[in-house]
Amino acid sequence: MEKNEKRIVIILKKTYLLPLFVMLLCLGLLMGEKTAQAGSLSMRGVWVSVFEFKEIGLTGNKSETTFRANARDLFSKIKANGCNNVFFHVRSHNDAIYESDLVSWSKTFLNGASAPTYDPLKILVEEAHKKGLKFHAWMNPYRISSSKILNPAKESTIEKIAGQAEEIVKNYDVDGIHMDDYFYPTNIKKYAKVAKKKKYKNTNAMIQTVYKAVKEADKSVAFGISPAGNLSYNATIGADVKTWLSEDGYVDYVAPQIYWTNSYLMAGKKVKLFDKVLKSWREINTADRPMYIGLALYRAGTTTVAEDPGWKKRSNNLATMIKKIKAGNTEGYILYDYVSLYRSSAWKEVKNLLGSICKFKLNKKKKTLKVGKSYKLKVLGASPSRAKKNITFKSTKKSVVRVTKKGKVKAIKKGKAKVIAYIGGKRRVCRIRVKG
């Protein structure tokens, strides 16, 4: 090959390789971005339901001062558990925990008292924001009682629900409007007989109308739904989740309630039901909408579901679930319910959960001590704060080094040992060398 011909070949190679290199570089950056997003847990939420109001001191029979103090305490604790979003029940039974032009005051919220002279929702939103939490106004769309709902087929029902969502967005600085899985009930005969297509049509009309109303009132406010985890069950109650996850104009996110462990029993055989259901939801999310997984904290440490002994036998269910959530195209989780964060029977599960999201380091990775000398290991940069309070220490060789639960190290005899700081599955190590 002549010299000029070789030069032409080299130029051609460079010409074709450069775009290929740029393309691969961009692809790598995009993949890196997607991986970072997948592991970020942008949503760490908790639901606060109407059934918890009395226990946490947030009912209308409290004075404004007491109500605000209790709200402040609630949101401080939510923040301390690593959450950054709260989903608060504002409309549970065709009612409201604020003064509305469309529905009456919530009897559960009033707790036997007359309407308060202050604005509860305004206080709740203010106090949540002071703690750096996003506040989502949680609505049950149709429910009036356990045996009565607003008729989903009526235009007046759609107008009422959309009107109340708009009312909230216009009057309060909320970050989101949130609906749960109470659509067509299965326990009311006349609604159970409605054809699936008609249920889908009526429910979708309501959801589209609410979405539009929310966005017209404030584009920055998110609208999302937490459907049941069981896809087949969703079809029976008119929750057209496949459409919501493939077409625009319905939701900004979904939060499927995947309330089962990987020790679920079917026909006597153990099934990894959480993994199976999570995979199914990821597969139908063709529009790649943000997806936050609802987790059953309220079942931790209990035997409320006989077919799911994993909640009682294991204490790392939620930690494992969160790890799997981080590993794929799901952006976070929402816990149900708040009070279980402080229920004694759920503590081991909560501690492991905190360990799974905790970030911390020690002030020393290595330390040399003389026999008889002491040193205080310190935990640095720990968050969330409840995790920091529950980080404990242990020594791998107590004959060489002893350590208190709070990190005070004492050298006993010549040798080497590791001092481990841990919470749940999260560990940090300091290597101690003891000289004579």
Indicate the topology.
Blueprint: H1 3-38, E1 43-48, H2 64-80, E2 85-91, E3 95-96, E4 104-105, H3 107-110, H4 120-130, E5 134-139, E6 143-145, E7 148-149, H5 155-171, E8 176-179, H6 189-192, H7 196-217, E9 222-225, H8 231-236, H9 241-244, E10 253-254, E11 264-266, E12 269-271, H10 273-284, E13 292-295, H11 310-313, H12 317-326, E14 332-335, H13 347-357, E15 359-362, E16 366-370, E17 374-376, E18 379-383, H14 385-389, E19 392-395, E20 401-403, E21 408-411, E22 415-423, E23 426-435
Parallel strand pairs: 1-2, 1-14, 2-5, 3-4, 5-8, 8-9, 9-10, 13-14, 16-23
Antiparallel strand pairs: 6-7, 11-12, 15-18, 17-21, 19-22, 20-21, 22-23
Structure description:
By secondary structure, the protein is α/β, with parallel strands linked by helices. Helices cover 37% and strands 23% of the residues. The protein contains 14 helices and 23 strands. It has helices at 3-38, 64-80, 107-110, 120-130, 155-171, 189-192, 196-217, 231-236, 241-244, 273-284, 310-313, 317-326, 347-357, 385-389; strands spanning 43-48, 85-91, 95-96, 104-105, 134-139, 143-145, 148-149, 176-179, 222-225, 253-254, 264-266, 269-271, 292-295, 332-335, 359-362, 366-370, 374-376, 379-383, 392-395, 401-403, 408-411, 415-423, 426-435. An 8-stranded parallel sheet has the order 10-9-8-5-2-1-14-13. Strands 16-23-22-19 form a 4-stranded mixed sheet. A hairpin with a 4-residue loop joins strand 20 and strand 21. Helix 2 (64-80) runs parallel beside helix 4, helix 5 runs parallel beside helix 7 (196-217) and helix 12 (317-326) runs parallel beside helix 13 (347-357). It starts with a helix and ends with a strand. 39% of the residues are buried. Residues 1-38 have low confidence and may be disordered.
